[in-house]
Amino acid sequence: MPKQTKFMNAPQAIIEKFQLKDGREITLETGKLAKQADGSVVVTCGGTMLLATVVASKEARDGVDFLPLTVDYREKFYAGGKIPGNFFRREARPSDEEILTMRLVDRVLRPLFPSDFHAEVQVMISLISYDKEVMPETLAGLAASAAIAISDIPFNGPMSEVRVVRIDGQLSVNPSMENAAKADLDMMVGGTKDSIVMVEGEMKEISEQEMIEAIKFAHEEIKVQVEAQERLAARIEASKIKREYSHENHDEEIRAKVWEETYDKVYKVATSPSAKEERSENFKAVLEEFLAQYSEEELAVVKPFAKVYYHDVEKEAMRQMVLNEGVRLDGRTPSTIRPIWSEIDYLPGAHGSAVFTRGETQSLTAVTLGSVKDANMVDTVAINYDQKFFLHYNFPPFSTGEARPLRGTSSREVGHGNLAQRALANMIPTENPYTIRIVSDILESNGSSSMATVCAGTLALMDAGVQITRPVSGIAMGLITDPKSGKFTVLSDILGDEDHLGDMDFKVTGTERGITACQMDIKVEGLTMDIMESALLQSKEGRLHILGEMLKTIDAPRNDVKPHAPKMEVLEISKDFIGAIIGPGGKIIQAMQKDFETVIAIEEIGEIGRIEISGVSRENINATIAAINEICFVPVVGSVYNGKVVKVMDFGAFVAIAKGTEGLLHISEIEWKRLDKVPYNEGDMVEVKFMGYDDRKKMKLSRKVLLDRPAREERPQGDRPREDRPQGDRPQRRDDRPENNDNQNS
Predict the structure, then answer these.
(1) End position of a domain, from candidates 577, 610, 631
(2) Residues 581 and 674 in one domain
(3) How far apart are CA 678 and CA 584, in angstroms?
(4) Is the pLDDT reported for residue 373 higher than 60?
(5) Residue 632 pLDDT class (50, 70, 90 cuts)
(6) What is the pLDDT of residue 621?
(7) What's the burial of 129, exposed, middle or buried (CB within 10 Å: 0-12/13-18/19+)?
(8) In 10 A of CB 680, how many CB atoms?
């Protein structure tokens, strides 16, 4: 007899639950799915579910002295009951929205791994079910951290992220998409139980204190989520004993020698103000001098260790110089902004352009104006819309003096472009008719290139004649701390080295009235709110200084777009006319676009047809409008029109008051006196008044009502009527009068 199949019992899931302040419940579940991963968790809120897995190699690859962490976030279209709209009908390369979510998670996770842990770590997060009331990116950080927390991978977490918004003055977290659109403050905040690690978001010109309040509010929710992960991890055996690793070898003798022989020399180089390239060469020379004392055979052992320890020397010398002497690598004080120069209208072919240079960072930015047909199509599981304002940021290798392969748009470029876009977006008026694309090409980079993009973007928009609400500037703030002494120094407008060697990269953008966007990454634990507040206040001073320098170049948008830029007009018509404008097979609309050299875009919104007409020539735009108005013409009762006689009959004249719109001007309506003949020829122009429609929906026109009515003649009493015929007699019907003519005005 064949053996009986044994059915597997369903695994028993381990579940932990907690509630947000608004009462919504979030569930953490493990033990049911993806059990061969080092850690696997399903996070559920409402109908939204994310599956997060983590796998780490047991050993580090040879020659790897950093953490090769990969965070991948993908939205499965089946999660929302959708089929991908691309050619392959499957999930392909990640969208910009997915890349941005990856970055949000990566930036919080990365600092929480031990600094000497170099094994490859892969975190994969998948949206497997979507509920429009719960935005999935708000749960991605929680899911990733929970998967790591229940594994044996060394980790200084857990952490979590929340999306904090303010609607009508009230703060809340993890809103629906509908509610998020109403917010005047919208931030993602990531952190551990003890500290904030990451902040990113956009605001509608809020104050520094309002931002601090929102971060504190978010942190309270983060603490609850971290505690839930800790409870879940405590129930998982694998998480109780973290794996042992040894990914670094050290030689304490070489370390001591490097510090002893190079620190003073490095400190001297650091305190001598110099440009980026010169400073790099001087630091390199100190290391080469140290290595010169060894033979070729000794270098094979000493050099790898010396390079690692020398980097630590550079970092410490620079940090102590700033803390103790208040002097930076380029000679500035902590709050000093680098020299700025800017220029507009640099590119004659662009619709708007600007060059913005701050120190050794330079952005060449161009603005292109287009129609609704040029909008950026955003299609994900959660959202599907046409984006009419977007910004692209490019960071070529020559900007840092490097030669490296070009492998498409990097996640860094996507992230920096998104930050600059959010900084400017709320300054674009809602009534703006254009699709606007901004492209920032970074030509030089030594820190704060995304903030240079914001400044250059503002200048280019004003050069293009886009009527922005207020100009925006941006600044990157840094931080140096000393845990031993408790000293700290906030740095304005940081260099690339200060970003690399410092403890914080805090980018802030805003107008003279308040903050419009921010992005903060913290590299140390325990950043206090006092330090953060100090950084924000110092950033305000820097922002306003930079804004003042920008306004010396151009202080307000041009009154109009440039002559070669497209002009735009928007009409609203009844949707009933859309078909007539398009014509059979698009014949009419295509002919108008060809004849008038314009672009016509039609959008149906409820009962309204929104028509967008763009072209370089305003005369051609006006001609297009006139042609559309003719098609959509609806006469108004009581209105006067200058019409053209198109046909003359014995009983009246047919008059066209618009193309395709004709009515009968009956002979009795031409003048107050009786006429025996219609006094017009075809082609004559005549002023008429539209009197409405008859029973058969035929138009009735009159000319005599526009004329003064003659005075009535008084007859002697007893006179017979004007026609000597017995009362009741009727004139004979004229044989040539059409039987269906009902247009005579009685």
Answers:
(1) 631
(2) no
(3) 38
(4) yes
(5) confident
(6) 92
(7) buried
(8) 18
| Mean pLDDT computed over 584-601 | 92
pLDDT by residue (tens digit) across 223-257? 999 999 999 999 998 888 999 998 888 889 999 99
- Tokens linked to 486: 């408790």
Query: d(Cα 595, Cα 592) in Å, to the nearest integer?
Result: 5
Domain-located, residue 745: no
Number of CB atoms found within 10 A of residue 22's CB: 9
Whether the per-residue pLDDT at 656 is higher than 80: the answer is yes
Say whether both 127 and 33 belong to one domain. yes
Q: What is the DSSP letter of 134?
A: B
Q: Give the per-residue pLDDT at 728.
A: 45
Please write the tens of the pLDDT for every residue from 272-282: 887 888 888 99
What are the Cα distances from residue 539, in Å, to 201, 327, 450, 455, 517?
16, 18, 15, 15, 12
Q: Are residues 377 and 443 in the same domain?
A: yes
Residue 718 has a pLDDT of: 54
Strand ranges, E, within 632-729: 640-649, 652-658, 661-666, 685-693, 699-702
- 1 falls within a domain: no
Q: Residue 415 has which token pair?
A: 């992230």
Shared domain for 51 and 162, answered yes or no, is yes
Domains of the chain: total: 5
Same domain, 655 and 531: no
- Closest of 478, 486, 493 to residue 523, by C-alpha: 478
Beta-bridge partner residues of 164: 173, 187
The answer to the question of residue 612 being in a domain is: yes
454 vs 542: CA distance, rounded Å: 14
To the question of pTM greater than 0.70 for the whole model, the response is: yes
For CA atoms 261, 262, 263, 264, the dihedral sign is positive
558 found inside a domain: no
Whether the link from the prior residue into 158 is cis, omega within 30° of 0, is yes
- 726 pLDDT exceeds 50? no
137-149 vs 96-109: helix axis angle to the nearest 10?
40
For the beta sheet containing 473-481, the strands, ordered from the edge strand earlier in sequence to the opposite edge, are 170-173, 160-167, 185-191, 196-206, 515-522, 504-510, 473-481, 488-492
Answer yes or no: do 49 and 196 share one domain. Answer: yes
Residue 184: which domain range?
14-239
